[in-house]
Design a protein that fits this description.
By secondary structure, the chain is an alpha+beta fold. Helices cover 55% and strands 15% of the residues. The chain is rod-shaped.
């Protein structure tokens, strides 16, 4: 977090288009993977440099997918973007990992930004990673903050020629990757739903301070999740309406389906948010009920002992002219009378169904 703040301060005041990586370095060096494929051919190469990547791209006539892991090397990012004739502002957006999900159209190419979400197994919070895309003709470039296996499903489909990826162009590949990311949101939502189910049971059985802290942490994570995912509806809606120069008409049905998935994701997030509010109310109600039960017991005890205290107070005054003080069995009589009052109070409260 401190490193990210320092990067923001460094970027502050610079001219528009200044290339400064605003995230944290998560890899020792940038890794570049080039996938060249067509319906008949497939080739995957680990490029050793940007120059090798450019040469591999220039000589291939099919679809090229360039995946870049690591954004800390601004020079390499600038070199690959310069080859693709990307605007300086577009380069700046790639290096700024705090981008709002969006799609931007430029003359001859398309840029998209989206957040990839994963569950941190150590503290069960969400890790946010920005994924950037450049679609230009038959070339799709993806930029990730760190190496990961989030796109392995699509890589496998390309390698084994499954589905439609090898039969379609780079626009369909962009759709497939966006669809994979959106589908992964459902895993995150299911994870939070399971946590809320577990927390609901715990709040009913033991509404302590620990469970209240868990609830506040979940509520905060869900609000961050909502803020991150909500703009994706606008982004995918715009992706669906792009003209033929960016996406071909034969994938419109797929983009509409993707838009439907984003709506379902957002609706589920709203349900999660409402559930956290409901659980907070449940916690307050449960605490209030337990407090009322405690006050009820104390009130019943007070009600029973008030007349007994009155009797004991009267005969504790020790006036010399109190006739009962001279009775031989006065002490036992008063104890018996107090016992009768005690039992009578219990019977009265029981008939009233107050105990």
């Amino acid at each position: 977090m401190n490193k990210r703040k320092q990067k923001k301060k460094l970027k502050s005041g610079l001219a528009p288009g200044s290339l400064v990586f605003t995230g944290q370095q998560k890899m020792a060096q940038v890794e570049i993977t080039v996938l060249n494929y067509s319906e008949e051919t497939f080739e995957e190469i680990k490029a050793k440099s940007v120059g090798e990547t450019i040469s591999l791209t220039k000589t291939f006539k099919g679809t090229t997918w360039i995946n870049i892991d690591g954004l800390h090397d601004e020079k390499s990012i600038e070199e690959i973007c310069t080859f693709l004739d990307i605007h300086k502002l577009g380069m700046e957006d790639i290096l700024n990992v705090n981008q709002r999900p969006k799609i931007e159209e430029y003359p001859g190419y398309l840029q998209a930004f989206i957040k990839m979400l994963t569950i941190n197994q150590e503290d069960e919070t969400i890790d946010y990673e920005q994924i950037s895309f450049i679609l230009k003709g038959n070339i799709l470039v993806t930029f990730q903050e760190k190496a990961g296996n989030i796109f392995n499903n699509v890589r496998t489909r390309i390698k084994e020629a499954k589905g439609l990826v090898r039969k379609r162009g780079a626009d369909y590949l962009l759709y497939a990757l966006l669809d994979l990311i959106v589908d992964h949101y459902f895993i995150i939502i299911d994870n939070f739903s399971d946590k809320l189910d577990e927390l609901e049971t715990d709040l009913l059985n033991k509404p302590g301070k620990e469970n209240l802290n868990r609830l506040h942490l979940l509520r905060r994570e869900i609000l961050l999740l909502r803020r991150t995912i909500y703009p994706i509806r606008e982004m995918i809606g715009r992706f669906e309406k792009l003209d033929e120069s960016f996406i071909t008409g034969n994938i419109r049905d797929y983009t509409r389906d993707l838009f439907d998935h984003t709506i379902i994701v957002i609706e589920n997030i709203e349900v999660l948010r409402d559930r956290t509010s409901g659980l907070l109310d449940l916690y307050m109600n449960t605490v209030s009920i337990k407090m009322n039960e405690i006050m009820k017991v104390l009130t019943i005890m007070s009600t029973i002992f008030i007349p007994l205290t009155f009797i004991a107070g009267v005969y504790g005054m020790n006036f010399s002219n109190m006739p009962e003080l001279q009775y031989k069995y006065g002490y036992f009589f008063i104890l018996g009378f107090m016992m009768v009052v005690f039992i009578g109070m219990l019977i009265f409260l029981k008939r009233k169904k107050w105990i």
